[in-house]
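Quick one from the shared queue. A colleague (R.T.) flagged Chaperone protein HtpG as missing a structural entry in our internal table.

Convert sequence to structure tokens.
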Amino acid sequence: MRKFKTESKKLLDLMINSIYTNKEIFLRELISNASDAEDKLYLKSLTDSSIKLDEDSLSIRVTPDKDARTLTISDNGTGMTADELEANLGTIAHSGSEEFKTANAEHQGDDVDIIGQFGVGFYSAFMVASKVRVVTRAAGEDVAHVWESDGLEGYTIEDGERDHCGTDVILTLKEDVEGTDGAEGERYSRYLEEWELKNLIKQYSNYVRHPIQMMVTKSRQKPKPEDAPEDYKPEYEDYTELETINSMTPIWKKRGDVEQKDYDEFYKSAFHDWEDPARTITFHAEGALEYDALLFIPGKAPFDLYSKDYEKGLALYSSNVLIMDKCADLLPDYYNFVRGVVDSPDVTLNISRETLQQNRQLHAIANRIEKKVTSELQAMRDQDRDAYEKFFENFGRGLKFGIYSSYGMKASELADLLLFWSAREKKMVTLAEYAKAMPAGQKAVYYAAGDSRDRLEKMPVVRAALDHGCDVLLCTADVDEFTFQAMRTYEAKGLPKTYEDDAAREAAEKAVADGAEPEVEDRSLELKNVAAGDVDFATEDEKKAAEETAKANEDLFDAMKEALGDKVTKVTVSARLTDAPAAITSEGPLSLEMEKVLAAGPDAGEAPKAQRVLELNAKHPVFDKLKAAQESGDKEKLSLYAGLLYDQALLVEGMLPDDPVAFASHVCELM
């Protein structure tokens, strides 16, 4: 017996037991080796006239034998001489394919695609096999050679027989292992089952460039006997037929002859969706890093998209061989809904070919993918608004969370993809559309956050904004206000220019009247919750009147604050309310809606509270009642009124009174 040409049996043990995380990978590795052997023979035939080859005859055969407990992977490629067997299989981590690829680099491409790199894939066979026998005959030789090993100490090489050039890798599978003490067993015999082998071939090697064939069992109806009775029932029989299991040419590498229906069928089959994708994105990159990408934006959100069990990522292939089913690094979290495939011969893989060694290449691909997806979404938004609104209904929450989770760093990329309901326009609008429709002089984007549009539209602060000519975005997603807090401002492009004085404005208007283009400017707009205490739509006259009223009724406000205690930070008069008697607003960064969202979370007991302010409408008849109670010295009535107004304002905000029973009792008392 010949010893392996490494220090170590330890290294061999590492190859077999530690490199690969998944035992079923062995079939991918052996099929890739077989594909390389066939590519080598094809390339040799181009320069050696003695090799007569029909490229269409190249194929890989997978043959299970349950009785002998063997699995054979055969090719009709270049084969190996005795010296090559010694060099390639006797020396661990020596890659004949890598040497061949380096020597013939100018031929690597559409006609030749050498997959092997590390020289360890063959040894993955010992993860499932107790013995491996290799029968090979090199092209141009008359003698075959047999390499055999149990993967422990060494191997033997002897002369053998094979009808033509190529290689048979014959695995004698290990015995099944029963599970013990709750641990799972290992059923190696599953690699002899037809359905399992077909699934593995389709999963990992579906796009290997040569046909992978296997005898498969099928069923057919027997001919009806001539003397069959009238109640004859058809009989069926099983038969076997040689079938090509893999597709060979991936759809993402077909140039120009693929229709949308073909992409739709591939998407539904590969990603198990019933609906056609909303958008298909395909592109090919060349240069320092070559790759193909086929991406899909789904027509609907998967049921588990926002669950912790959802896994994002694109299928990553290298030289048409599946490396990772879901490569998460290819997508940012806010585009986690995108599905698809990336195939590159240039990515640097680790020795198991299950992950990447360098993030630089992956980062470059991910950046290009992100830009392509963003560009496609922008085109959908501008060219097919109905489709985009449907998309946003499904996936908009993730875009908003992308801004929030990045602390606003991704706002420049994502802000213009967001949609919100306009209280004035009664439709979904972008922030850019909101900004262009603002009246002159408006310096902020106003929004209201809550659980329903209907309730938000009826809020006094929203009606006040609309009455003063300002539109309000009605935000009903729990992440909306957190997103706006992370953004802080929105950079609006191409707004009508504002002028510091009347003379400059009049000069600009005259220039436009004379035929000049109106001047525009980019402007940073604050994002303001209309329920914030510092938002005021009132005119200077209204503000002055409110200040005078507040000063004249200081004693009333102090008495109401005393009655309400720490429920509010202060009671004041509002210049913005029109028909509502009172409203609850907030001071500081935490709004009432944010308080509600945090209170519904897992740490509700420790959730912070908003600093509430009770604003009164001095023009409402209720204010006169409050003044009358104060002037009469009826503290009990004033306390009752203050509590009722506060609880009523909470209900308008969609929040329950602190004591619903007391609120009901006070209403009945007044009745």
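Confidence is low (pLDDT under 50) at residues 93-98, 110-118.
The chain is about 35% helix and 20% strand.
Added to the table.
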